[in-house]
Design brief:
Mean pLDDT: 92
Strand content: 5-15%
Number of helices: 9
Helix content: 40-55%
């Protein structure tokens, strides 16, 4: 699940000619920086940018407003660099964030409360309407793929129809990719790691062909059970029998991530939760 802003920009990096000290970063970002501290700017937004490293690895750089995520890197002050610029990051003293790995069990009461809270908040675009049963143009278009994934979760064979979700929709991380990422997160969080592994074994080789490098990197992180902290807050709330009044703040936080990426990811989480909720 990407952290993007509406509109690209150019400017001056917060530190020039020296490695930028990292205050905090995700676990996967830390591993990337341990292998190579120097990356090339491949996407620029007002409040963040992406750096590309060897072997298609990426990190997202910004200040603390970016929030915590597996690919996120927090620096003290961010100003947009130029596309193609080389930047160095120094993460040896950085705090490392990783979401909880404890197994969760979604509750029917929490799912119903989530749907009730979501009805007045869900965006018209993307796949977020699936959270509360509201349809839209993209959902109608994606229905064969969504049905194929539902059949697979129920024990069927994963058919090629599901592949159409990869790269489906606009944005840095398309809605279809975010949905698949949420599904991977949900499968792993709700005690179905073998299914998460099987889905990623099927998706991984296809992702490199059908979506962007940045979106594929977020999918790979989701396959390991990691996404933006706002999505994990919603996943954990499903295990806590969260009442309707506990959802608005969580959903507002989720909505601040990307254009509709947070909602698309939550729709995937809900798809994983339905079959195991108690």
């Amino acid at each position: 699940m990407a952290q993007e802003d509406s509109g690209q920009g150019q400017g001056t990096a917060s530190v020039r000619g020296a490695a930028i000290p990292v205050l905090e970063c995700g676990r996967i970002a830390r591993a990337t920086l341990a292998a190579s501290a120097d990356g090339v700017v491949c996407a620029v937004f007002r409040r963040s940018c992406y750096l590309e490293f060897a072997h298609g690895r990426t990190v997202c750089v910004g200040d603390h407003a970016l929030g915590r995520g597996p690919l996120n890197v927090h620096v003290g002050r961010f100003a947009p660099p130029r596309l193609g610029e080389a930047l160095g990051l120094r993460a040896d003293a950085a705090a490392v964030w990783q979401p909880s790995t404890r197994q969760l069990r979604p509750r029917r009461m929490a799912l119903e409360a989530l749907r009730a809270a979501a009805r007045r908040r869900v965006p018209a675009e993307g796949l977020g309407g699936l959270v509360c049963g509201v349809s839209g143009a993209l959902i109608t278009h994606a229905r064969p793929a969504l049905t194929a994934l539902d059949r697979w979760q129920a024990g069927g064979t994963l058919s090629g129809e599901a592949e159409m979700l990869l790269g489906l929709g606009p944005g840095l991380t398309p809605s279809g990719d975010d949905y698949l990422g949420g599904l991977l997160i949900g499968l792993r969080a709700f005690g179905r790691p073998a299914q998460a592994d099987a889905l990623w074994a099927w998706l991984g080789p296809r992702a490199s062909l059908h979506t962007s490098m940045i979106s594929a990197a977020h999918l790979a992180a989701a396959a390991e059970g990691e996404a933006h902290e706002s999505l994990h807050a919603c996943v954990e709330a499903l295990d806590e029998e969260c009442a309707i009044d506990g959802w608005p703040a969580r959903l507002d936080w989720l909505a601040s991530v990307g254009h509709c990426s947070g909602w698309d990811g939550l729709a995937g989480v809900i798809a994983a939760a339905e079959g195991v909720a108690v």
